[in-house]
Design a protein that fits this description.
Zincin-like, five-stranded mixed beta sheet, 11 helices, 5 strands, 55% helix
Length: 231
């Protein structure tokens, strides 16, 4: 969702009547714009988020808004973080899917808040690029001749690179080719998604896997999780 559209939505939200409003993490407003399926236990999901996310991580997120959003649909994504809010579709299969969606976007909120601590020394980028170079070599050896190493050295998000991983190669095949590189294949998408993917699995109870595969990433998450400052 574009910044302009999001700001317009937020401004308009004050005049709307929502089906449900509550608070989580002490300060984060949760707004259900469109109804969730009957099998989704939103209260349980929010309680789980409060259990796993450190208190000081909530400071940078103002709201979680659930519903139908054209921008999410057009990009084929379930959730997005922008302008202090997490937007998540109400089209959910089960509690786990929704919890994962919110937790992943929460990582981007934390990334925005603690960016200097995460990226300033360049260690995380170096770890990521070592993995990207290895990924390039693996794919080249398996006959993907239409790729260039240059694109694998760009740490920023690229729609073209995302399409290569998601559509052309496919995450299922990637997971078979690179089981010891990334916690999950989506972590290869960009440096930002490498962090968010690791963050998600760290707080899903898979921190030992993050530590084994991505020790720098593990240390970054552990450090900011134990730091009580507001960055």
């Amino acid at each position: 969702m574009s910044t302009e559209n999001l700001r317009g939505y937020i401004a308009d939200s004050a005049s709307r009547t929502f089906k449900e409003q509550t608070a989580v993490g002490g300060t984060v407003q949760v707004i259900v714009k469109d109804p969730l399926p009957s099998n989704i236990d939103l209260a349980g999901i929010l309680q789980q988020l409060e259990r796993v996310i450190p208190t000081h991580f909530w400071y940078n997120c103002d709201s979680i808004i659930v519903g139908q959003f054209e921008e999410l649909d057009s990009k084929g994504v379930q959730a997005a973080y922008m302008d202090g809010a997490i937007y998540v579709t109400n089209d959910q299969d089960d509690d786990k899917d929704m919890f994962d969606d919110i937790l992943h976007e929460f990582a981007h909120s934390v990334e925005e808040m603690a960016g200097a601590e995460i990226y300033a020394d360049g260690d995380l980028e170096r770890e990521f690029l070592v993995k990207r170079k290895e990924l390039f070599n693996i794919l080249s050896n398996y006959g993907y001749n239409n790729i260039t190493q240059t694109s694998f050295l760009d740490v920023e998000y690229s729609e073209e690179f995302d399409e290569l991983l998601h559509r052309e190669i496919g995450y299922e095949r990637l997971s078979l080719l690179t089981p010891n590189l990334f916690v999950s294949p989506y972590g290869a998408t960009s440096l930002s998604e490498y962090f968010a993917n690791g963050f998600e699995h760290y707080f899903l109870g898979n921190s030992h896997i993050v530590k084994e595969l991505s020790p720098v990433l593990y240390n970054k998450i552990s450090t900011i999780a134990s730091t009580q400052d507001n960055f």
